Amino acid sequence: MADLIGQLQSLAATARGAVAGAADERAIEELRVRFLGKKGELSAVLRGMGALPAGERPRVGEVANRVRDEVEALLGAARARLEERKLEAELAGPPIDVTLPGRRLVPRGHRHPLTRAADEITAIFSRLGYEVASGPEIELDWYNFEALNIPADHPARDMQDTFYVEEGTLGPGPRRGGVLLRTHTSPVQIRTMKRLGKPPVRVVCPGRVYRSDYDQTHSPMFHQVEGLCVDEGITFADLKGTLAAFARAFFGPATRTRFRPSYFPFTEPSAEVDVSCSICGGKGTLPRVRAQGRPDEAGPERAGGSGGLHPPDVRCGTCKGTGWLEVLGAGMVHPRVLENGGIDPARCTGFAFGMGVERMAMLKYGIDDLRLFFENDLRFLEQF
Questions:
Q1: Is residue 60 classed as helix, strand or coil in its secondary structure?
Q2: DSSP string spanning 288-300?
Q3: What is the greatest pairwise CA distance in the chain?
Q4: Contact call for residues 310 and 303 (beta carbons, < 8 A)
């Protein structure tokens, strides 16, 4: 027993000297493993306790516990001492100006212009009391066409040529008609009416839609926001007031609206909605800007007889001289569409409208090519 106690006391003395000379955290950790690890010196000494008589083991165990506690305390004090030295070194170093702006190592991202436009549109209608509704992008022919008063032989289907899904790629389950990528978000209106079952219905339906064309003003995938309002006593005047309020909120308080008769299978009567051009203020012309410091080369007669001080205006290229921009289609919901949605057309009426998000963003931000939205060119996207 005396031999083991002597080894433990010697181990404690060795640990005191070694820990006192530890210069960094790594050295302290190595000492912890050396003295207190599973294969350390303390464990090696304690393995000799098995040869002691049972009456002597408690005395050796007491000394061993005391040595372990002492070594752990020495290691903890050494770590605290190193932390204190580190803090003192930082405080003694050059001062840190906490008022300096932070360093932006990575440029901060921002929302895509289409996302910004869609969010702004839905936010405006949310303030008017509309809820946001969504539906599947892979849709049934019945919801996409039939329920919207567009039967299989209707000419309107040619205007919405889309992508159909092969039946063999679909899993088992009941289906009504073909399966396709939706051509508009109008199917969400039918699904919402069937889900609610009764008026009032006030929803806007943003989302991606698909048609098989691609050019400067068309994309095979684009975005729409459509709206539906159904209740007792809804009139065309409600539609005009709603869209006029939306146009002023989206394009500016001075924006005027114009309704032109049109045709859509799912609304009757139907209208195309125009807004006054935000570039020329609805005038259809823009002032001619002359080169600074140069006289008007047209002369007094060609410049309107004013000696070149007031050159004639030029046609606005955005609205092509009309003063108006077409933005969306709208109309009163066709009674057959109300029936397909589970609403009694003899008791309720409603209006619907739809707009392309790309179209709205192009008009608001002055963009002349729709394909810029999808090319991921940072020179374009960073402007927003």
A1: helix
A2: PPPPTT---TTHH
A3: 128
A4: yes
pTM of the model: 0.62
Helix (H) or strand (E) holding 360: helix 357-365
- Residues 251 and 278: beta-carbon distance below 8 Å: yes
Confirm if 318 and 366 have CB atoms less than 8 A apart: yes
Per-residue pLDDT tens listing for the chain (384 residues): 677 778 878 888 888 888 888 888 888 888 888 888 888 888 877 777 767 777 777 787 788 888 888 888 988 898 998 899 888 888 888 877 778 777 777 777 788 899 999 999 999 999 999 999 999 998 888 898 889 988 877 776 666 677 888 776 665 655 556 888 898 999 999 999 999 888 899 999 999 999 877 666 567 888 999 999 999 999 999 999 999 999 999 998 989 999 999 999 899 999 999 999 877 888 888 887 643 444 444 444 444 444 445 557 888 877 888 889 889 999 999 999 999 999 999 999 999 999 999 889 888 888 878 788 888 888 888 888
Angle at 344 between CA 342 and CA 347, to 5 degrees: 150
**Strand 221-231 versus strand 349-356 pairing type:** antiparallel
Residues 280/319, Cβ–Cβ less than 8 Å: yes
Residue 367, both tokens: 């963009």
CA–CA separation, 148 vs 265, rounded Å?
Answer: 7
**Residue reference for tokens 């684009």:** 222
Distance (Å, whole) CA 83 – CA 373: 54
Kindly state the tokens that stand for 32: 């912890």
